[in-house]
Structures are given as structure tokens and as C-alpha cells.
Design goal:
By secondary structure, this protein is an alpha+beta fold. The chain is about 40% helix and about 20% strand. Helix 4 packs antiparallel against helix 9, helix 8 runs antiparallel to helix 9 and helix 14 crosses helix 15.
């Protein structure tokens, strides 16, 4: 660990209420390392912030620890409290502050999508609820279970499986037609009334009206058997079995047919658990658990509000009713969720006996939520002997092609998961032809310090002691005070990535760390290293390919660097340029009719040369 420290780390934060406006907004609390540790919103910022630093005896343990670590508070003003709520949710999702309620398992769950606006609707699986007139069913927390249901329905209800693009361009039936799992409306004349009858049956199953469908199918099977139409009767039998297999495990928990989610909270010795019940048409479709260590039920209202704002995003299926254990206040959250759903959403406390029983069921689910104490970040802290838990890991790798195109790629892992949006690529034209990885990594370190927070808890280098020393020296020469934990992972004797002989080095240590081959910690570091390597290599090849293509493009008559840039900005790929019509080129800024004709002719010549 470098011995330099942040200057701000030793300065105790002094709060002065007059420094903050008494208006709506969002506040960001930062610690001595410049990391955002808490994001909050307030209708009146001055009053809300003052509550943290006055009367501390009434605070929860979490709040007392939070306040003790605050070294800086930034504010973002908004015009309304509603805007502050939306901004807060976005910032929490982006920065994942340590003391906020953060949904680490915030993936979109599987939904069934039935696009009834199409002439021949298709049943598909998706994770995004787009307001395009389609009907959605779900959610399913298990993608495997959802896919099994989709396969069962697809075998006995012959709806089309192909996408709209394939559907409109197909010239002959696919394999599903030969397997009698599709009527092939893409190329054959299919009775739309017959097709929509199949669609209606699938809709009845997924919307919870399976009992009505079973009665109807049983009657039709009996009639077909009595009329000696045994093949038709067998089809109805298969559909009955598919319906029963689809709904097995779904328990009827309430008599009405409304969609609702029920949220329960339960406190344990290690923290606070939250359980969600997904109830569709009166049946318990699925459930989900969340857990936050160190929290108590006293913080339940704050946890609930933050959870609702994050969990029910714009592309998630939102039911018309959410039953919660606490009152959410003035209806601000309900208004936001109603806008996301494009329909009324009510957030209520349980009103009757049935709803109270559902809340108890959700609370029992929350009680079963468990804390994953042995996380990969904690294991890395122990294995690498780090001073802090590496919540944010930045891994860098230098790459070049024969000394040309020197680049350093940076990937970021937060709480053990990759943050795709934080990936960066650094180019160093001044190092062209040098093939000096050490100089590239040192230059990266300087530019990374200049870019500012959020700072990494661990910087992992793809390399050995040489790369580690180069970065350490560069950071030591920086004007800004830095305090980064460094480590380097080098490939084993055979130089094969991922082999068990990989070695991990730390500063001020001659020998590699004694990480057990195949251990969770070493495998994770190898995964991070390989991710950075693939990222920088892919970006470098793309840049190299673009240079080659641009050279090929500028060699054509009538196309110089400026015109080439205009073409790249519009078409983004050379293949798209070759397929462009003359009118498309003529519509570009700064290109007239004669020039467009010349460019189009040159591109067509290049196209013919490629084909030959």
C-alpha cells in the first residue's frame, strides 16, 4: 500500500446549516477517500442535513457510523421533491453507496410477451416491459423455469416462434412446422380465427384463468372422442396436460383476480430481510428475497421507499397494486410508479384479513433471507492483506500491435460484479513504436489520478513485478495525494491465461502471495484480468480495423479525410456505405449532387472489386 494519504482524510467535517439552501434536492455524502458513501433526497435540504449533525443520540447505529465518516457533502438542487426522488434513485444505482439500500440483484426478471397487435401474435420471453401495446405476464425470477413453461406451451399451442424480421423474410417453413409446433403463417395461408383461438388459450393460461380453460378443453375432448375424432381428442388431451403442468406449483392465495405485489420486512440478528410476493390473478406466481446486513426495522420506512424507487424501474412490469408494511407518505412514490407503468399504481397497507395474511406470508419469506457474509470482496481483502474491502476494483492491461496503437484498457468491478459503463480505453500516441508496456501503464496512472474520483479500492495490473513497480513509481511522483492498493497478476510459466500457476504480486513483497491454485480468490482475479485483456484487445483491433478501412476509403476519388469523417458519422460501417443510395449520400451536410454522384460511383466500384 502506498504511504501517501488523502489530505482531506484527516480533516474532520464541520457542518454549517447556512451553507445549504432550504430547497428540494439531493445530497451526496463522501468519505475521506472521495467516495460517495450515501445519497439522500430532501424536500428541504438544510433541515434534512441538520438532522444528521444535531441530536445524534437518537440516530440508529448505521446513521452514527455514517456521520462519523462524512468528510464532504455535495448537493444537487431540483425544482420539486419528485425530481429529487428520481435523481436519488439514479445516483444510487450508478454509485452504489455503501450506506444506501442498494439492490445488488437488480436484474430484470423474465416476462412473457404476447404481441397481440400483430396479425399473427408471437409468445416470446423478455426482460423489458416496453409500452408498445403488447401484453406481459410474469415476472419469473427463474429463467430456467420460464423457459420450461415456454417450451411446454410451444409444443401444444402452435404459435410462431420467429421474430418479426425473420417472419417477414422467410421463404419456406422452419423446423418447428415439421415438428407440428408452428402453423407457419410466415409462408402458408393460415386461418386467422383458428390462430387467434390458440392465442386466446395461451392468454387464459398465463393470465390465471386456467380453470375455465380446463373445463372447456375437457368438454371438447369428450365431444371429439364421442364423435370418434380421436386425433383431435388427443390434441385436446395434450393441451390439458400442458395446462396442468404449467400451473402446478401456483397456489391460489386470494379470491379476487387482481395483480398485486406484497412486500414484507423482517429483522434478524444480522440485519434486515425483505420478501416480495408476485401475485397474478389471485395466484402466487413467484417470490424473491433481499437482505441488508446491519439494518434494523427502525429503518424500515427508508428501506421500503428506496427499494420501491429502485426495484420498479421504467422497463419492469409494475402491478396496479403494491401492498406494503408501512405508509409511504404523500403519494409521491405512487405518482412516480404510475408514470412508469402508464397506469394507476396504488401503494397501500393491508386492508382486510386476506391482505394481512399475504403480508404475513411476505414477512415469512423475508425471514428466510440470508446474509452472504463471505463475499468475494471480503475474501480478497483477507487473501491480499488489504487495508480496506475492495468494493471497487479497477483492472488495467496494456496492449499494442508491433509497437503501434499503444492502448491501456480499464475495466471496473464493483461488489464483485462488472460495471460495463465504467470501462475506459486510454490511447498514447506519444508511445507509438516504443512497445513499452511499463511506460504505458505509468502514463495511465498519471491520467487516472488527474481524472479524479471515484477512486479504486484496488488496482489490479495484468503483469508482474515490473508493471507493479512502474505504476507504483508513477503514483509516487503525482502531485495529488493518492492512497491506492496495488496488485499484479502474472501468467504462469507456460504463459497461458487462466492456468493454475498464475502468480499475484503486491508492493514491498519479493515473492508472490501464497494463493492456493483453484481458490475462489485466484479464480476471481483471473476472471477480472481476462476481462480487461479481452476488452483492450477488442478495442485495439476495432481501432486498427477502422484505420485500415478509413485508409481504403480515402484512397477512392472524391473522398478525403473530411468527407470520410462525414460518411463514418452517418453510416458507421463501410458495408453500410457500399449499400447506400445516391440520395442518402446527397442528403449529407456539405455534399452536393455532383459530389454525391462521384462518391456513389466510387463506392460502387469498390463494391464490385470486393465481389470479384
Amino acid at each position: 500500500m502506498l504511504k501517501k494519504n488523502y489530505t482531506v482524510a484527516s480533516v474532520e467535517f464541520k457542518f454549517f446549516a447556512a451553507d445549504y439552501p432550504d430547497s428540494p434536492g439531493v445530497y451526496l455524502m463522501k468519505n475521506g477517500r472521495g467516495r460517495i458513501i450515501y445519497v439522500g433526497k430532501a424536500k428541504r435540504l438544510r433541515r434534512r442535513l441538520a438532522s444528521y449533525f444535531q441530536g445524534g443520540s437518537g440516530h440508529t447505529p448505521k446513521t452514527r457510523v455514517l456521520v462519523s465518516q462524512v468528510r464532504q457533502i455535495d448537493i444537487l438542487l431540483t425544482t420539486t421533491e419528485k425530481e429529487a426522488l428520481l435523481l436519488e434513485a439514479g445516483l444510487i444505482k450508478k454509485h452504489k453507496p455503501r450506506y444506501n439500500v442498494v439492490l445488488k440483484d437488480d436484474k430484470q426478471y423474465v416476462l412473457f410477451k404476447l404481441d397481440k397487435k400483430m396479425e399473427y401474435p408471437r409468445l416470446s420471453m423478455t426482460r423489458r416491459a416496453v409500452r408498445d401495446g403488447s401484453i406481459y405476464f410474469g415476472p419469473y425470477t427463474s429463467a430456467a423455469a420460464a423457459r420450461a413453461t415456454w417450451k411446454i406451451l410451444g409444443k401444444v399451442f402452435p404459435l410462431r416462434k420467429c421474430s418479426d424480421t425473420v417472419f417477414h423474410n422467410r421463404v419456406r417453413p422452419c423446423l418447428y412446422y415439421d415438428m407440428h409446433q408452428c402453423l407457419a403463417p410466415c409462408v402458408l395461408e393460415v386461418d386467422q380465427l383458428l390462430y387467434m383461438n390458440q392465442v386466446h388459450r395461451v392468454e387464459l393460461i398465463l393470465s390465471g384463468h386456467s380453470s375455465d380453460l380446463l373445463v372447456s378443453l375437457t368438454r371438447k375432448m369428450t365431444d371429439a372422442s364421442r364423435d370418434m375424432k380421436f386425433e383431435q381428442a388427443a390434441e385436446y388431451r395434450d393441451q390439458i396436460q400442458a395446462v396442468k403442468k404449467t400451473i402446478e406449483g401456483q397456489v391460489a392465495v386470494i379470491h379476487d383476480k387482481r395483480d398485486r405485489d406484497v412486500i414484507g420486512l423482517a429483522e434478524s440478528e444480522k440485519g434486515l430481510g425483505l420478501g416480495v410476493l408476485f401475485i397474478r390473478q389471485g395466484r402466487l406466481l413467484d417470490q424473491k428475497q433481499f437482505f441488508w446486513p446491519g439494518l434494523t426495522l427502525d429503518e424500515g420506512p427508508e428501506v421500503l421507499e428506496s427499494f420501491l424507487a429502485q426495484f420498479y424501474g421504467a422497463n419492469r412490469f409494475i402491478p396496479s397494486m403494491i401492498i406494503a408494511p408501512f405508509d409511504t407518505g404523500e403519494g409521491l412514490l405512487a405518482e412516480v410508479l404510475s408514470e412508469r407503468r402508464e397506469g394507476v399504481v396504488r401503494i397501500i397497507t393491508p386492508q382486510g384479513t386476506q391482505e394481512k395474511k399475504l403480508l404475513e406470508l411476505a414477512r415469512s419469506v423475508a425471514k428466510r433471507a440470508k446474509c452472504r457474509a463471505d463475499t468475494i470482496t471480503l475474501r480478497l481483502q483477507k487473501a491480499l492483506k488489504l487495508s480496506v474491502e475492495p468494493a471497487r476494483i479497477e483492472c488495467v492491461d496494456a496492449s499494442h500491435l508491433g509497437g503501434q496503437g499503444m492502448r491501456v484498457g480499464q475495466v471496473v468491478f464493483e461488489e464483485g460484479r462488472r460495471n460495463m459503463e465504467a470501462s475506459r480505453i486510454y490511447s498514447f500516441p506519444e508511445l507509438e513504436g516504443s512497445s513499452d508496456d511499463y511506460a504505458a501503464l505509468a502514463a495511465w496512472a498519471i491520467r487516472r489520478v488527474e481524472s479524479g474520483p471515484p477512486w479504486p479500492d484496488l488496482v489490479l495490473l495484468d503483469g508482474g513485478r515490473g508493471q507493479l513497480s512502474a505504476v507504483e513509481r508513477a503514483l509516487g511522483e503525482c502531485v495529488n495525494d493518492v492512497c491506492w492498493e496495488l496488485a499484479a497478476i502474472a501468467k504462469g510459466p507456460s504463459r497461458r491465461a487462466g492456468e493454475l500457476g498464475d502468480m499475484v504480486f503486491r508492493p514491498q513483497r519479493k515473492n508472490p502471495l501464497p494463493l492456493r491454485p483453484g481458490s475462489v480468490e485466484l479464480l476471481f482475479l483471473q476472471k477480472v484480468r481476462d476481462t480487461a485483456h479481452r476488452f483492450v484487445l477488442g478495442r485495439q483491433r476495432s481501432a486498427r480495423k477502422k484505420v485500415v478501412l478509413n485508409s481504403e476509403l480515402t484512397s477512392l476519388p472524391g473522398i478525403g479525410p473530411k468527407t470520410a469523417r462525414i460518411l463514418w458519422d452517418r453510416f458507421e460501417a463501410l458495408d453500410a456505405m457500399l449499400e447506400a443510395e445516391r440520395g442518402d449520400i446527397e442528403s449529407l451536410p456539405g455534399i452536393g449532387k455532383k459530389k454525391a454522384e462521384k462518391i456513389h460511383s466510387a463506392l460502387q466500384g469498390l463494391k464490385m472489386a470486393r465481389l470479384s
